[in-house]
Amino acid sequence: MGISEETRRLLTQASTATLTTQLFKRGLRNTYMQNVHRITPDAPVLVGEAYTLRMIPAREDLDHPDMFRDRTHAQRRAIEECPAGDVLVIDCRKNTSAGTLGDILIARLQARGVAGVVSDGAMRDTPQIAPMSIPVFAGGAAAPASFGAHHPVDTNLPVACGDVAVYPGDVLVGDGEGVVVIPRHLADEVARDAAAQEHLEVWILSEVKAGKSIFGTYPPDDDARARYEASRPQNR
After folding, report:
1. Which residues of 47-85 are buried (b: 16+ CB within 10 A; e: fewer)?
2. Domain range spanning residue 114?
3. Per residue in 88-133, pLDDT tens?
4. End residue of a domain, out of 182, 202, 221
5. Whether the predicted model's global pTM rises above the 0.90 cut
6. Co-location of 72 and 175 in the same domain
7. Total domains in the fold of the chain
8. What angle in degrees, to the nearest 10, is found between the helix axes of 187-209 and 16-25?
């Protein structure tokens, strides 16, 4: 069963900064992918459950253009099998010397309703991918095709992406800052508490902009907390 529409809605409104704080409060420190950035600047916030693809280093006798004719090829299967609403997460060992996917494969994922793509490798055809409406995150750009560096071996098993463990079904959120991974069983409560944190921090920011010192305001002491509660619409 996928995440609820309410959880999805709350996560689209929460920054990755807020989400990492909520995960840190639950003892999870390594949830933010390193050196993985958005390459579709006008696409919406990425939210979806992980469907994974793992790459190992390429080998010349196995990796060549003709291999793409094989319908059992793991990369080709991932493009056609990643469920609509999920995020295709690709473990490239942080190797950015060749593209993970190009514009045609990204377009196919978009047409199938996939929620987004995340890779700690590079993407090719990035000028063509950049204006697309599907969220795409990667470790960089590279013109060479994937078979120059990567051999896809399996799908929907645990992987590492950007130095973060990603298990199938984990919830990914990606914004202008990067990508965070939320264990599926925590997604609902993290989404709820992140929304509360975001609301409080909007109020704190308004107080600081109005001239209040951060002492007693950020974090709020009892007096500040009382003023915040009094400002909330349901308490007026």
Report:
1. bbbbbbbbbeebeeeebeeeeeeeeeebbbbbbeebbeb
2. 29-182
3. 999 999 999 999 999 999 999 999 999 999 999 999 999 999 999 9
4. 182
5. yes
6. yes
7. 2
8. 120
